[in-house]
Amino acid sequence: MSRSPTLKADLNFVCDPSSPGSFAIPFISRVPSGETLYVRAHNVPLHNLREDGYHPSFDVTGFTWKTVPFNGINSGDGWEDRCAKEACEWLKVFLGARACAPMNWNLRQRTVTSTTSDDDTLSNDDQAFKTLAQEPSSAAHIDVNRERVADEVLKAFGPGTPYSTANRLAMINIWRPLKGPVTDAPLVLCDGRSLDPVDLDQTTDMFGGGYYVKFNPKLKWVYLHDQMPDEILLFRQFDSMVAHENGNPAYVAHTSFINKDRPDGEFLRSSIEVRCAVVY
Fold first, then answer.
1. 3-class DSSP state of 128
2. What sign for the dihedral angle of Cα 92, 101, 195, 131?
3. If you count DSSP H runs as helices and E runs as strands, how many of each does the chain have, helices first?
């Protein structure tokens, strides 16, 4: 597999609407003001995880990558559910958890030509939002907020779950490309240790909302160069036992980026992301 040194790319971060180059993220509002979320691009260094075979410790950084083949991609009706089920079975063993179940899965397919500009043609309705949600993320964010995520984790285990009194709950995402190598709009992750909670803006949308990230040059961003379908990125979105404070990988912000050195990829990025509910 080819390697690439650290590169620089534009990532979008929360900003004031009056900031030069800012644009709105449709259907997402800031809490508690209710104002539309605006972001702008900053050019930041991205570190290649494949350099020197670097596999971060999940407990230390909040993310890692592993080779975990799944042979059923696009293999008929229900393949997504099978993929989610196998991902949770693998994750339970990897973490040494008591239980793990899929909360949901999401297929993403890039169809637009840019992840860095507003689309004024979208109408403000549910279908337009759902369509936009199938595109790779256009700004650095965390999927859920801590105020609601524990209840969402428990729902994955069904009514009357025996885990309602568990001491430790978590939500972990597993991200896999459907084709590879990924050269178009790869996923990029923030080392959880570098994220200060003061740099988070709480947001709301039709799915419940989470957090978007303000720019801070101290943030460390990583990606997996030329990721293949048998390689997964796993990253924390919530852990009830990890303190919400600077230096702890309580959650991992993420987004996508366009590599301007490789503008003519063989295909547009397509991927599946499974949100996993974990009980330790």
1. helix
2. positive
3. 4, 14
Q: What is the pTM of this model?
A: 0.90
Rounded Cα gap, residues 270 and 182, in angstroms: 9
- Rounded CA separation 56/170 (Å): 19
| Count of residues making up the chain | 280
Q: What is the distance, to the nearest Å, from the Cα of residue 109 to the centroid of all Cα atoms in its chain?
A: 14
Cβ partners under 8 Å of residue 127, min gap 6: none
> pLDDT tens digits for 49-80?
998 677 899 999 999 999 999 999 999 899 99
> Distances from the Cα of 120 to the Cαs of 74, 85, 137, 257, in angstroms?
33, 38, 17, 21
List residues bridging with 273 in a β-sheet: 106, 175
User: Any idea of the CA torsion for 261, 264, 270, 273, to the nearest 10 degrees?
Assistant: 0
b vs e for 23-58, b when ≥16 Cβ sit within 10 Å of the residue's Cβ? bebbbbbbeeeeeebbbbbbebebbbbbeeeeebeb
Max Cα-Cα span within the chain:
52
pLDDT tens, position by position, 88-134: 999 999 999 999 999 999 999 888 654 444 444 444 455 444 455 56
User: What backbone torsions phi and psi does residue 103 show, to the nearest 5 degrees?
Assistant: -80, -45
Q: Count the neighbouring beta carbons within 10 Å of the beta carbon of residue 5.
A: 8
> Pairing state of beta strands 7-14 and 36-48?
antiparallel
DSSP helix/strand/coil, 44: strand
Tokens of 220: 């460390």
Collapse the DSSP code of 94 into the 3-class scheme (helix H, G, I; strand E, B; otherwise coil) and give the result: helix
